[in-house]
Predict the structure.
Amino acid sequence: MKTQLTLRVNGAPRDVPLSFVGRRLLDTLRLELGLMGVKEGCGEGDCGACTVLIDGEPMCSCLLLTGVVEKCEITTIEGLPAAFLTRFSAICAEYGAVQCGYCTPGIAVMAAWLHAGGTELGDQPISKLFAGNLCRCTGYQQIIEALTALR
Amino acid sequence: MSEIQPPVQGPVSATRATERARGLARYAADLILPGTVLVGVARSPHAHARVISIDTKPALEIPGVLAVLTPADFDGIELGHPDTDEPVLTRVARYVGEAVVAVAASDQDSLLRGIEALHIDYQVLPHACSVADALTLDQPLHAAYPDNVVRRFNAKRGDWQAAEQRVSTWVSGTFQTQAVPHAYLEPRATLVRVNGELLELVTGSHFPSVLAETYREIVAGWGAQLEVVTPDIGGSFGAKWEHPTHLICLAFAHRLGCDVAMVLPRRDDMIAGRTRLAMRIQMRIGATDDGELVAKETVLWADNGAYSAHGPAVTLAAAIRMDNLYRFSALNAKAQLVYTNNIPSECFRGFGSPQSAFAQEQLIDELAERLGIDPIELRRRNAVRAGDTTLHGWQVGSCGFTECLDAIQQRVQAHQHENPPSINSRYRFGYGVAAGTHGISNRGYDRRFDRALLSLVLAPDGMLCIESGEVEIGCGTVDLFGAIVAERLKLDRERIRVVLGDTATVPYGLGCFASRTAFFGGRAALDASRQFARACSHLAIEIGLPAKASIATVIDTAVAVGRTTELRATGRYEPKHVTLPDESGYGNTSPAYTFGAHACCVRIDIVTGLTNVVHYWAAHDTGRVLNLQRARGQVVGGVHQGLGFALAETTLVDNHGRLQNPGYLDDRVATFADAVPVECIFTSTFEQEGPNGAKSIAEPPIIPVAACVANAIHNATGTRQRRLPMTPERIWRSLHTEG
C-alpha cells in the first residue's frame, strides 16, 4: 500500500507522508518540507503571501490540497532561478520596495512568473496583474516602480 | 531583529531589505520546528458573560491532547501596559472571541478536536458595543469602574473668557471615527523554546525589553527564567505588545517542559487582535474676522473596547496633540475613555491624531470658507513656528510647517492649471488640504526615563555586532543602524551584524513606538560609534599601530592578536530638555516635533458615490532625510493606510458584538489596484537635536489623510463628511440629502 506521496518541488522529487494528501499545500511546504519562504497571511486566498507556481502558473498554496498537485511541478521562492532572485532583490532594495517583507516572497513568485511567461501579459498594468498580492506597509508605489524597472 | 541564521563565518548579505526580498527573513512562525506542541484556545461566543463552569475532561480524553489551562491557572495575573486590566484566560468574557480555556496538543487535528470537546457554561450578561450603550449600561464591565468610564482628561490652557470675547466666527461639528484593525500581513505568532529553566519567548513585539521585564516577574513565580528573542516582524503598526497568547504559551512550555507554539489564523487575529480607538468628537473653533485662530474646544468620547492597553494615552493625545499645530490663545479639551464589549483597542500609527485631525482640519477648512480666506493661507497665518512654546508646553525646535504649506500650495496650483475644471454630469472634481503634527517618542510613556542604548561589540571572528533593545517593525531600522555605524567607522557594511531585541544580549530599550527608533536609536548609534572609535585608537597605540590607523585595520589586528574583547562600547541618548507631562498632558514631551501638510485631488462619481483619489501630495518636515527611499516608503505607506481609514476600512459588529468582517475580503485594505500616485515633498529643515539633523517619519503621514480627503469631497460636492469611513453609500446619501 502507498504510504508516501511524491511531490515535485523546486525541480526535485520530495516524499511526504500520505497523511498530508488532504492538507493544504501551504502546510505541506512549510511544515513538512521546511520551505519557510512561503508565508501564510490570511489562509483564504485574499493576500497572496503564499503564492507558488503550479506547473508554471501562480496559485495560492493555502487554497490547494496537497493531493491535488501530486503530478505537478511546484515552485516556491526557494526554487526561483538564482539570477532572477539576485536581480529582483537588488531592485527591491534599490527602489525601497520592501518594508516588513512578509508579502515580498509572494510578489517575487508573481514577478518570476511574469518574467518567464512571455509577452501576452506584458502590456497589462502591474496594478492589475498584482491585485492578488496585498501589502500593508508600502502603499505599493515603490513596488510598482521596482517591478517596472524589472520589466 | 535577531539574525536568524547561526553566526556566520563569511560575509553577511549587504542589507536586510535584500534578504527579505529573497525570502530569507524568518518571522516567528517560520522558526517553529516539527514536533513542536501546538496551542489553541476556546473563545467566548458572547460579548459579555460570566463563565459558570468549565469541564476539561472530555478534551483531555482525546488522544494527542496534552494539557489544558483554565482561568484558575492565571489567577492574580493581569496584562496591559501601562495599565493592567486584561486577564490571560478570563472568568468574565468581555468581548466575543476572548480566550477562556487553552489547549495544548501534539498535532493540529487533536488540537481542534480538543477545543471542540470542552464544555464551557456561560451566564450571559447585558452587553454594550457602543460608547453610548456603555454609559447607560447598569452593569459595569469592570467592577472598579461603575460607570464604565476608564479615564477622564481635562486640559484647559490660556484665558478662555478673554479669548472667547475676541471670537467673531465659530464653526462646530460632531465627528465619528471608526475602529479599524491594524491588518499587518503577519498574523500574531508565539513560540516558546524550553532550555532547562530558561523559557525563550520568540515573538515580534514593539518592546522586547519591557516584555521580558513584565513576564520575568510572572515566570519567576513558577521558578523559571525568561528571555525574549525578536525575529523579523511582519508589520504591526501599533498592535503587537503584550498579549494573552504569550503567557498561555509560556505556561504550557513550562508545564510540559517542551517547545510550544501558537499561530493565530487571520480570522482569530482579527477577532482577538486589537483595533484603533473609535471616537466621537465634538469640536468648535473660533476665529477673528481677519483669520486669527483664537479658541478651540474639544469634547471627545473614546471607545476603549474591553481592555485598556494604551487607550488612556491615545485618548489624551487625541484630545490635545493637534492643538499644537496653530497659535491658539485658549484651549479647552475634555475626554472620556469608556469600556465597551468591543475588541480591546490599541494604539495605531498616529496615536489618536488621525481621529482628531479628521475633526480639526475640516473645521479649519469651514472657517476659511466662512471668513473668505484661502484654507492654506489661513493655516499659514496661524502656523506654529520654530522657537514657539505651545499652550501645551511643546518647545518647538526646528519647524518646517509653513514650508510644507508653501510646497503643497504650489503643487495644487500647478495641477489646477494643468487640469482646468471640466463640466461633467457624472464626475465632480475637488481639492482638499489638511495638516498634522507629531512628537518623537513621549517622555510620559515610561515615567522612569526616555532613552535609548546601543552597543557595538567586536565578535572574536571580527564581525562588529550592533546590539540594541530598539527593534525594527519594518521601517528599515536594521539597515539604518548598520548604515550609520558603517559610515562613521568607515567599515564595510558586510562586516557589521545587527542584533535587535534579543534580551539575553542587548542593552535595555523601550522599543519601537511613537516614531522614536531612528531618532533615539540613531543618536545612540552615533554615540556608540564615537566611543568605539576612541577605543580603537587606544588599542591601536597599545598594539603598536599608528593612532590614526583605520578602524578596519585595528579590528583585523585585534582579531589576530586575540584582543577583540577590548573593543566594545555602549552609546546612549537621553534628551535633556524634555519634561514629564502632568495629568492633563502639559509638558515638553519630545526632543523634537514633526510637521506635515497634505493635499489631494478627488473625483466623485455622483451616481455611485465612489471617491477616487486622483493625485496626492504629502509634504513633511522630518528634518534632514537620512534615506530618501525609506522616507518615501513611510510616507506613501502611511498615506495609503490613511486612505483605507478614510474611505473603506472598518470593523462591522452586529447586535451581539460579533465581528462581521474578520478578514481581508470584508475589511477592505488597499490593494495594488487601489494604489494612488503620491508625490512626496521633504522640507530642508535641519534638527540640531536629531541624528545627523533628522527627525522622524513613521507616523506623521497617516495623520492628515482622512481630513484631507473629506475636505476634497466637500470641495467637489459641497457636502460635509462627519463620519468615517466615507464609503460610496455614505457619500451618495449625503449627496441626496445635502448636495
User: Anything to note?
Assistant: The domain at 80-150 of chain A is CATH 1.10.150.120 (DNA polymerase; domain 1). The radius of gyration of chain A is 15 Å.
